[in-house]
Amino acid sequence: MDLKARLEDLGYNILGIVTKGEEALKIIEETKPDLILMDIIIKGELDGIKAAQIIKDNCKIPFIYLTAHYDNKTLERAQKTQPSAYLKKPYNDTEIQNAIELALIDHQLKSKKPP
Predict the structure, then answer these.
(1) What is the pLDDT of residues 49-92, one digit of tens each?
(2) Domains in the chain and their CATH numbers?
(3) Most buried of 43, 44, 70, 109, CB within 10 angstroms?
């Protein structure tokens, strides 16, 4: 809820908050967000990395990992999904805003078809 309030203070519209990977997939299908902030450690059969891979394969929505887990094994798994960013907790508002803006710009540029 803290992150939600911080993002809203920065001017972002939050479409939903979920605690399970399966719920994330459902709400993403329903709301079609511009960007996803995904915690790596979430409840359910799908952790954040597995959910993000499904999102990447099926929805083409950019995502940013938020995590307190920065061990090599976790980082290796996360990198394979090609996130737009990987923010280690604790993070500040500037880090969050910069990561979001860069992710959206990068996605927009990659989505444009060459002339």
Answers:
(1) 999 999 999 988 999 999 887 788 988 999 999 999 999 999 99
(2) 2-89 (3.40.50.2300)
(3) 44
